[in-house]
Amino acid sequence: MLSQDRDTLGGALGRVSSGLYIVTAGTGASAQAMLASWVQQCGFEPPSLSVAIGRDRGLGPLLVPGARFVVHVVRDGQKELLRHFGKGTPPGPEGFAPLATRFSDDLPPLLEDAHAHLLCEVSGRYPVGDHDLVTGTVLAGRSEPEGEPWTHVRRNGFRY
């Protein structure tokens, strides 16, 4: 039987599986990263992704139309990336230390050990409840041939 009870509904929402990702944006002293789980491909032509960003996240103001961001797919077992970005990090290069990270003047930071990288350009931003849904056109990407992406489910769909 379907239920509107918050505990029952939260358990059902939590069963919606997702991946684990690190999203980076900005360059230099404004470069930031966040752990994300609500990332999804949302178009073939042009190839497009959507990312849900909590409005309180420091990365959010960087994701304006035309800005670039990178979605890093976390490989199953890459706990060091989850531990590093799970609680938030300061902006700038110090927020990425000691991880192997490639910085440039015109692209967001690239986490060298990620399972896959997708460079995107923000094409839209839409308010959805307590998050903003950012859409991006995928400009370039690469992936490692070995390993699998990390997927997970939550115990409760009302919390991360």
What does this structure look like?
- Helix content is 11%, strand content 39%.
- It is mainly beta and 160 residues long.
- It has a single domain (18-144), classed as Roll (Pnp Oxidase, Chain A), CATH 2.30.110.10.
Brief summary of the model shown:
The protein is mainly beta.
Topology:
Blueprint: H1 6-14, E1 18-19, E2 21-25, E3 32-36, E4 39-43, E5 48-54, E6 68-73, H2 79-86, E7 101-102, E8 110-111, E9 116-128, E10 131-143, E11 151-152
List its salient traits:
160 residues; mainly beta; Pnp Oxidase, Chain A; 2 helices
Total of helices: 2
The counted number of beta strands is 11
Strand order of the largest sheet: 3-2-6-9-10-5-4
Q: What is the CATH class name?
A: Mainly Beta
Number of domains: 1
Low-pLDDT segments, ≥5 res: none
Give me the CATH superfamily: Electron Transport, Fmn-binding Protein, Chain A
Helix content: 10-25%
Assign the CATH architecture. Answer: Roll
The CATH topology annotation reads as Pnp Oxidase, Chain A
Overall structural class, as computed from helix and strand content, comes to mainly beta
**What would you call the shape?**
globular
Tell me what portion of residues adopts beta-strand conformation: 35-45%
**How far apart, in Å, are the first and last alpha carbons?**
26 Å
Radius of gyration: 16 Å
Oligomeric description of these chains: single chain
Task: Report the biggest beta sheet as strand number plus sense, adding barrel if it closes.
Answer: 7 strands, antiparallel
Order of helices and strands: HEEEEEEHEEEEE
If you average the pLDDT, what whole number results?
A: 94
